[in-house]
Design goal:
Layout (H helix, E strand, L loop, with lengths): L7 H5 L1 H9 L1 H4 L15 H10 L3 H25 L6 H10 L4 H13 L3 H14 L4 H13 L3 H13 L23 E2 L7 H6 L1 H15 L7 E2 L7 H4 L8 E5 L6 H6 L4 H10 L1 H8 L5 E6 L4 E5 L6 E9 L4 E5 L2 E4 L5 E4 L5 E5 L5 E9 L5 H4 L2 H17 L5 H16 L4 H11 L1
Antiparallel strand pairs: 1-9, 2-3, 3-4, 4-11, 5-10, 6-9, 6-11, 7-8, 7-10
Organism: Pyrodinium bahamense
Family: Belongs to the aspartyl/asparaginyl beta-hydroxylase family.
Protein name: Aspartyl/asparaginy/proline hydroxylase domain-containing protein
């Protein structure tokens, strides 16, 4: 029934008994029944497992053989729809030799995909134990804790990553894609941003257009776009607490029809932004940034989160700022003031509350981090996308030799050509490339 049911000897030598239990799939045979996943019959497998206890090189060889067989079964299962195929062999391999952080990371990703988050966390911690600089495992653990709402645990993992030089510069700053060498601070002094003074000087006419729009369209925000109404910001909708409402008017780009229609009411606002912050407008037009009017209804809470990268900063110009509306970035809170800018790095953990009695409305502008060289700015989004792709690839494609990878590729191609495996086989082929 598995290593956990094998009795006292198994408890004393769990790695060897895991090998003996799972290794028969590779080195011996299983006699299956309806009540038991299999019974070990290959004497040579048991002998090899015991012998491995005293000879590290032999243990590694056995671990590699188990891993290779687990990889074969994993890919076969992905094609046939068995999400857990091969996992017991991969577990047994790592029980024999747990030196490879990438293997632990992959196994953790597969447990997470199967919904076994505790097992996933165990594997990612094992990856860190094998290699304290293995940053993928820190990222996965942080994401897991954040999804569970345990931000203290996420910060604890990030603290270890920072202290060991593996990733990030601050435990409060946890983007998946982290550009090293950029100045790191949750809050930035507005006076250090060259265009802030001119933007604040334009506040009266910007607010005048906002008030006129609200008087014409009403305070129910029916003519504002809903966060999450496009594929690109579907995740943002999950940040809004139950009963809250986060609406926007996207002033640049083609967010949706509501924003395109509403922005006609803000010609002087747009003229000011294009004159004062042309780089931010260009970023937004390229889909790399945002220039928008953001509104929160009373009682709305935006849950703690970090954005995906640290190569942009965010500016809020307060337009309607009721008492009780506040923003936390890192460990400290601040309140908006009408006509004044707050500048912050939203790759830091941040959250928003509107405990006021009226709408909280700000002009939101995302702009390049000043330390990011101009020559790298055009590449930054592609590097971000590549980093996300690589992390996904390492979560779905196990570590394996070039020869085995080529064998897997040929088998997947054959499955696709035969019309089997469906989208999963096609996706795996794409990740192999």
């Amino acid at each position: 029934r598995g290593p956990s049911h094998m009795g006292p000897s198994a408890a004393a030598h769990p790695a060897l008994f895991a090998l003996a239990w799972a290794g028969a799939a590779t080195l011996g045979r299983w006699r299956t029944s309806s009540s038991c996943p299999g019974r070990l019959t290959a004497k040579r497998t048991r002998t090899a497992a015991v012998a491995a206890g005293g000879r590290a090189p032999e243990q590694r060889k056995l671990a590699n053989r188990l891993w290779d067989s687990g990889v074969e079964r994993y890919f076969a299962g992905q094609v046939s729809g068995d999400a857990t195929a091969g996992l017991s062999l991969l577990e047994a391999s790592l029980a024999a030799c747990g030196e490879d952080a990438a293997r632990h990371h992959f196994l953790g990703a597969r447990h997470a995909a199967a919904g076994s988050v505790r097992e996933a966390a165990r594997c990612w911690e094992a990856a860190i134990a094998a290699d304290q600089a293995f940053h993928d495992a820190y990222i996965e653990l942080v994401n897991l804790h954040e999804e569970e709402g345990d931000f203290a645990a996420a910060r604890e993992v990030a603290t270890r990553a920072v202290e060991r030089g593996a990733y990030w510069a601050d435990a409060w700053q946890r983007p998946e894609f982290f550009v090293r060498g950029l100045a790191s601070s949750p809050w930035w002094r507005p006076r250090d941003v060259p265009w802030v003074a001119e933007l604040e000087a334009a506040y009266p006419e910007i607010k005048q257009e906002l008030v006129a729009f609200l008087e014409q369209q009403g305070l129910q925000l029916a003519h504002w776009s809903s966060i999450g109404s496009t594929e690109g910001d579907s995740h943002d909708a999950e940040l809004v607490s139950e009963g809250g409402s986060w609406r926007l008017i996207d002033l640049v780009g083609d967010y949706d029809a509501l924003s395109v229609a509403a922005r006609r009411a803000f010609p002087r606002t747009m003229s000011c932004i294009r004159r004062v912050i042309p780089e931010a407008v260009e970023m937004a037009e390229m889909g790399l940034g945002e220039v928008l009017i953001s509104a929160l209804t009373p009682g709305t809470h935006l849950k703690p989160h970090c954005v995906q990268n640290n190569f942009r900063l965010t500016c809020h110009l307060g337009l309607l700022c009721p008492e009780g509306a506040r923003l936390r970035v890192g460990p400290s809170w601040r309140e908006w003031q009408e006509g004044r800018c707050l500048v912050f790095d939203d790759s830091y953990e941040h959250e928003v509350w509107n405990d006021g009695h009226g709408l909280r409305v700000v002009l939101l502008i995302r702009f390049w981090h000043p330390d990011l060289p101009k020559g790298r700015r055009a590449l930054a989004p592609d590097l971000d996308a590549m980093a996300q792709f690589d992390l996904q690839r390492r979560s779905w494609i196990p570590p394996m030799s070039p020869d085995q990878a080529e064998t897997v590729r040929r088998r997947l191609e054959a499955e696709v050509e035969a019309g089997r495996g469906g989208e999963d086989a096609v996706a795996l082929l794409g990740l192999l490339d």
